[in-house]
Amino acid sequence: MARYFASLALLALFAGLAAGNPFGSKFAGDGTYYGNRDRGFGHCSFHFHGHGNKPGYLGTPLAINAAQYTGTSICGLCVRFRGTGGGAGGNPISSDWQPGFICDECPECAFGSIDLQKNGDGRWKVEWEPVQCPVGSSNFAYGYQGGNDYYKKVQVANARAPISKLEIKRNGAWQQAVATIDNYFEVHGYVADFWGSGGCASIRVTSILGDTVEDSLCCTSGTCEGKAQLPCRSDMPGC
Questions:
Q1: 205 and 87 within one domain
Q2: Cα–Cα distance list, 72 to 36, 52, 83, 105, 207 (Å)
Q3: Measured over all CA atoms, what is the biggest interatomic distance in the chain, rounded to whole angstroms?
Q4: Is 82 buried (19+), middle (13-18) or exposed (0-12) by CB count in 10 A?
Q5: Does 33 share its domain with 62?
Q6: What does the alpha-carbon distance between residue 227 and residue 206 come to, in Å, rounded to a whole number?
Q7: Domain contains 152
Q8: Cα angle for residues 16, 20, 23 (degrees, 5° grid)
Q9: What is the CATH number of the domain that holds 181?
Q10: Does 159 share its domain with 115?
């Protein structure tokens, strides 16, 4: 019977991961180092705005193992992590809880493991759990990568939790953008149908926690600040 309930617990855990929501779970694995790369560069593409322009703002930039890297639904996830004892090398990871955020993928890391984007040496046992990002009263930040009159690649940054879905209104109807593995959403169609003559597009974003908010996206290149933010959830840690 105990084995049966343990199996149910594992099924629930992996169902949550498959849905792109690691909140409510703790993970354990190895903690390693891959050097200080300044602003959080990595597969999550936080190069130009939001998280990536604020070194240390959300804690240590982290690369997550390939099994748990899911692009937009994991990029920008804030966590707290600590060393749990055990390991080898010159720089043990502190047993005190410390903040971090996911900005990259570690292809060779095993499930549950994280790679710290800072200088250090060794492989150490760690545990970590997701928390809401401490963005305070600030709003979303938006940025672009490439694009033309019929295609835009939009990123949502500085969010309280990772974004799993972005919709944009086209001629009065919501159209879902396509999530990419490098933490963007592709918008396909004639740009004027979305942004119109006023220069702003109506968008709707949904987080991995299921919260949905609407905002105005008032730039078609470069970066701009939004007017909305995800709510602070009292049933989830952090905020």
A1: no
A2: 23, 15, 27, 12, 10
A3: 64
A4: middle
A5: yes
A6: 15
A7: yes
A8: 60
A9: 2.60.40.760
A10: no
Assigned domain for 40 exists: yes
* DSSP H/E element including 5: helix 2-18
What pLDDT does 14 receive?
37
H or E stretch covering 194: helix 191-195
Q: What is the C-alpha separation between 44 and 63, in angstroms, rounded?
A: 9
Higher pLDDT residue, 196 or 127?
127
Task: Provide the residue type at 69 as one letter.
Answer: Y
Paired with 166 in beta bridges are 205
Q: Quick check: 233 and 209 in contact, CB under 8 A? A: yes
Distance CA 134, CA 56 (A): 12
- What is the dihedral angle through the alpha carbons of 84, 80, 101, 117, rounded to the nearest 10 degrees? -30
State pLDDT tens for residues 185-223: 999 998 889 987 678 999 999 999 999 999 999 887 778
Structure tokens at 225: 């600040």
Domain hosting 74: range is 2-131
Helix (H, G, I), strand (E, B) or coil at 225: strand
- Residue at 207: amino acid letter: S
Token pair recorded at residue 119: 């200088």
Task: Let me know whether 94 and 148 are in one domain.
Answer: no
- Give SS3 for 221: coil
The CATH number of the domain holding residue 51 is 2.40.40.10
Residues 21 and 121 occupy one common structural domain: yes
With beta carbons less than 8 A apart as the criterion, state whether 125 and 83 touch.
yes
